[in-house]
């Protein structure tokens, strides 16, 4: 990520951040600000990064995504 020359994404980002056993606290949702033209909405997920696809965390992520899609359809 640090060496690649990213193009700017034209839109909003729904960012999911693992909050348990974080390796690099410097990598926050704000780290992406230079690469995103819209909002960056953070959702903390109470697990480690490697566990984000386990049933409980992924169910939480799915609810947040479903809620966001419902909002966008209005």
From TrEMBL:
Domain of life: Bacteria
InterPro entries: AB_hydrolase_fold (IPR029058)
Name of the featured protein: Peptide synthetase
Origin organism lineage: Bacteria, Bacillati, Actinomycetota, Actinomycetes, Kitasatosporales
